[in-house]
Specification:
The chain has 260 residues and is α/β, with parallel strands linked by helices. It contains 8 helices and 10 strands.
């Protein structure tokens, strides 16, 4: 696991965007798993800038939403499909047919989840999963106690998670269920990049990086991944015990491993 601590949320997002952009330039038909929420906004803004100013093309990229609320139509203001469209897809040259989301209107969620896994496999598997971090340590909508061997499935959302997403719904209730890539699905990606910033994420970040591997902190499963990069700002890194070591490792990284 690679730990990168940067001075600000903006620097963290810029670094993550460079990792994604480098992959796309190296492998134009890359397959991505993408999140929504406040954290990746800066990442997407930089990718859009690179598309417009530097010719970064998404024409051959395939993208999969990490998750979506059950029963929510794509045009709903709280829809993750809509959010990704507004933040990234409509600003780049990604063909609509190559942007996938779970079929949350399907009357049979298990069938919809099975088909989602089949689409990922048919695309050649995930090259990179971009992730945020919940305050309780969840990734995608894999709440604490989620199976570390889980695949795409329906999950009941915790009250804290629903509260964190309330703004997109105004006074209406946040749905109680979502379809989400499972932890094993995320770990199947050839690379995982997690971005977290702010003091509210410091405890979860420390438990992810330095705590025991446990279903109580689903993100800790990234400890098992052969190429996981954790990008934190100063505030999110505040509780790391071995921060000085991580900074030493980053400073001593060979030139061929650098992505800046």
């Amino acid at each position: 696991m690679e730990i990168i601590v940067l001075p600000s949320p903006e620097a963290a997002c810029l670094h993550a965007a460079r990792v994604v952009a480098r992959l796309i330039r190296t492998k134009p038909d890359a397959v991505l798993a993408l999140p929504t929420g406040a954290t990746p906004g800066g990442v997407y803004a930089e990718l859009v800038r690179q598309h417009r100013a530097e010719g970064l093309s998404f024409a051959r990229v395939t993208a999969f939403n990490l998750d979506e609320y059950v029963g929510l139509p794509p045009e709903h203001p709280g829809s993750f499909r809509r959010a990704l469209g507004e933040a990234l897809y409509r600003h780049v040259d990604l063909p609509p047919a190559q942007a996938h989301a779970p079929e949350v209107l399907d009357p049979s969620p298990p069938d919809a989840c099975r088909r989602y896994e089949e689409r990922i496999a048919a695309a050649g598997g995930l090259d990179l999963a971009l992730l945020g971090l919940g305050q309780d340590g969840h990734i995608a909508f894999n709440e604490p106690t989620s199976s570390l061997g889980s695949r795409t499935r329906i999950k009941t959302l915790a009250a804290q998670t629903r509260a964190a997403n309330q703004a997109a719904f105004g006074s209406a209730p946040v749905p109680r269920h979502a379809l989400t890539m499972g932890i094993a699905t995320i770990l199947s990606a050839r690379r995982c990049v997690l971005v977290a910033f702010g003091t509210a994420k410091a405890q979860a970040a420390a438990r992810l990086v330095e705590g025991p591997l446990t279903a109580m902190v689903p993100a800790s499963a990234l400890q098992l991944h052969p190429q996981a990069t954790i990008i934190l700002d100063e505030a999110a890194a505040a509780r790391l015990t071995l921060r000085a070591y991580y900074e030493t490792v980053a400073a001593a990284k060979p030139t061929w491993q650098r992505e800046e």
